[in-house]
Structures are given as structure tokens and as C-alpha cells.
Design goal:
Elements lengths: L5 H13 L10 E6 L2 E7 L1 E2 L6 H4 L3 E2 L2 E2 L2 E2 L1 H11 L7 E7 L3 H10 L1 E8 L5 H9 L2 E4 L4
Parallel strand pairs: 7-8, 8-9
Antiparallel strand pairs: 1-2, 1-7, 3-6, 4-5
């Protein structure tokens, strides 16, 4: 048996985290890592204490469910809530980040973004290049 790469290992975990998602339109998972250690995880779901999309339906604006907090944002928020520093970390996400989550990641100190499928927003690529943030598309992992 061959050991999986670190990239595959953490992306597999992100996929497992996505199974906790409560938005059945798109299940996304995120794992924040530094020095091969998991710092935080997150999945997309409703505001804490609010009903979930898969229970009451979606709040759709511009073909997007706005009732949910994205997986990346939830991973950052969980780290903050528990006092975990994520500066100079990496993140593994099952889908590429939206523009807002990309900005959150940059300002929280995440330096490298691994993503599975591409999802919607290509503004992240030019800005990442300007800022020295590495974006890695893990296509077949």
C-alpha cells in the first residue's frame, strides 16, 4: 500500500468535513493546516442557532444561497473562537473560494490555498498573484 501525499490526505479530510454541511445545494469543507498539523476545520452551514437550509429551504439571491456561512469562513471563525493562530497557514477547500472568503483568508494570514473544483470567481487568481498567495488546484486528488 502506498501512503497518500499530504495534499491528498488533507483534501480527503476536507471532503469528509463537507459531509457535515447543512446546505444541500453545495456541500463544502475546509481544513486549515500549518506544519502538517490541523488547526481548524469548517463546513458551510447556517448561522449558529438558525434553522438549516436542508430543513427550511434556501435564501437565494443572485442564484446563491445567502443563508449559509461558507466553509472557509467557518474554519477561520472556529480558529478565532478557540484562540488558534492561523497566521502563515495553508487551507484545503473542496471548492475554490468566493471573493469574500478569499479576502478573509488573505487577511487572516493564510499563505497557500489548495482547492478541489473551481467554483465561480476568477478574481482570486490575479489578486493572489499580486499578493504572493499560492493557489493550487488539486484536480485529480
Amino acid at each position: 500500500m502506498t501512503r497518500v501525499s499530504w495534499e491528498k490526505y488533507f483534501m480527503n479530510i476536507a471532503r469528509q468535513v463537507a459531509t457535515r454541511s447543512t446546505c444541500d445545494r453545495k456541500m463544502v469543507g475546509a481544513v486549515i493546516v500549518r506544519d502538517k498539523a490541523i488547526l481548524s476545520t469548517g463546513y458551510n452551514g447556517s448561522i449558529k442557532g438558525m434553522p438549516h437550509c436542508d430543513e427550511v429551504g434556501h435564501m437565494i439571491e443572485n442564484d446563491h444561497c445567502v443563508a449559509t456561512i461558507h466553509a472557509e469562513a467557518n474554519a477561520i471563525l472556529q480558529a478565532a473562537r478557540h484562540g488558534v493562530c492561523i497566521d502563515n497557514s495553508e487551507i484545503y477547500i473542496t471548492s475554490s473560494p468566493c471573493w469574500h472568503c478569499f479576502k478573509f483568508m488573505v487577511n487572516s494570514g493564510i499563505k497557500k490555498i489548495y482547492y478541489g473544483e473551481f467554483y465561480r470567481d476568477d478574481r482570486i487568481f490575479e489578486t493572489a498573484g499580486k499578493l504572493g498567495i499560492e493557489l493550487v488546484h488539486l484536480k485529480d486528488i
